Amino acid sequence: MSTTMLLFIALAGVMLLLLLVIKAKVQPFIALLAVSLLVALAAGIPTGEVMGVMTAGMGGVLGSVTIIIGLGAMLGRMIEHSGGAESLAQRFSQALGPKRTVAALTMAAFILGIPVFFDVGFIILAPIIYGFAKVAKVSPLKFGLPMAGVMLTVHVALPPHPGPVAAAGLLGSDIGWLTIIGLAICVPVGIIGYFVAGYLNRKAYPLSIEVLEQLQLAAPESNAPISDRLNPPSAGLIAALIIIPIAIIMSGTVSATLLEPGSGLRDTLSLLGAPAVALMIALALAYYFLAVRRGWSLQHTSDVMGAALPTAAVVILVTGAGGVFGKVLVESGVGKALAEVLSTIGLPLIPAAFIISLALRASQGSATVAILTTGGLLSEAVGGLNHLQLVLVTLATCFGGLGLSHVNDSGFWIVTKYLGLSVADGLKTWTVLTTVLSVSGFLFTWLLWLLI
């Protein structure tokens, strides 16, 4: 099939998906599956392989996020139901003052995002976002949007995350310099994102009923009994329940870098540092400190934890369907066709790296896939560059993978569902924010390229 036809099919698929979700109000899970099926057939994927491709897309995403989302939702429910989220939010508000709370949480998210994958860190911080939103009586978007933006920025640009590490290997850039220069660029980019998120938050966006229930604004009957909130846990305990899994995950990441392969200690820390294991440890601690020590019955504790699953199931299913759409676009050859078109235009190396990666990100959804594919396409074009130039080409590729997060990106669905946004409002906020961050990172990178 010709490149032009493949690109037309991809564009038509995205437009149909937006029409179904925004105008026809079709449930996103159904719309994503239906459009994925149509695009697969139109792009020439053999009928006998279509369901295999769709299943692989669903399994590829859910294999990494289902356990994390489920455990994270249970941990968040335990913290929220016990009154712990409010305790923590009130403590931070008293210490920092309301005018500096968003900035403080955004800085914390920036640091968290360096060792922890974007989706894991965001899910872990979700109860904190809800807690602050309830105390301040504002939309969780006010806190969640800038936090998610800076976490995704460091996820795509800094080691030890897979995209930048793999791109560095393909392009031959030094990991140490990539970390140093990437961090120096990510700081001003994060500051820009903070102010852009504040500007976007000037408008009030309607929230989904699930998030309104989480905030206890739309479903009074879902409130925890008063007895559950008597003597709420301290802010220190709640902070520990959040920090412990993060610290465990960080220990696994650091051990993989510092310890020798095959070391028993390295293998043990790597196992404990797996996000699912770290969250299970945190949930076990929450079970004891928030439930057993505070007199909850075993059945009541089980009911509280189980109540988190319906909301988590919505996030899981939509996220998985986003993975299906992305997989179909990859297998149909759309991403490769788009990259080939852009690579023949003859752009200078830095803009070409950024635009190819950005186009791949928009066409198939995955930032990591976009970065890896672009790195492979440019691996023969970087010969003769010095080590700093190689790092800057790598960063241009990484920042291209940051922008245009939309309906074919599983991260888009995680952010919009947790923050209670409709698809249209997600495009107006999250897609705009990621694109501004992407372009800002590229401009800083290009400026450094011109200076050296």
UniProtKB/TrEMBL annotation:
Pfam family, one: GntP_permease
Transmembrane segments: 6-22, 29-47, 53-75, 102-133, 175-197, 237-259, 271-292, 304-325, 337-360, 388-407, 427-451
GO molecular function, one term: gluconate transmembrane transporter activity
Keyword annotations of the record: Membrane, Transmembrane, Transmembrane helix
UniProt keyword Membrane, yes or no: yes
Cellular-component GO terms for this entry: plasma membrane
Name of the protein in question: Inner membrane permease ygbN
Native source organism of the sequence: Serratia rubidaea (Serratia marinorubra)
Lineage, broadest ranks: Bacteria, Pseudomonadati, Pseudomonadota, Gammaproteobacteria, Enterobacterales
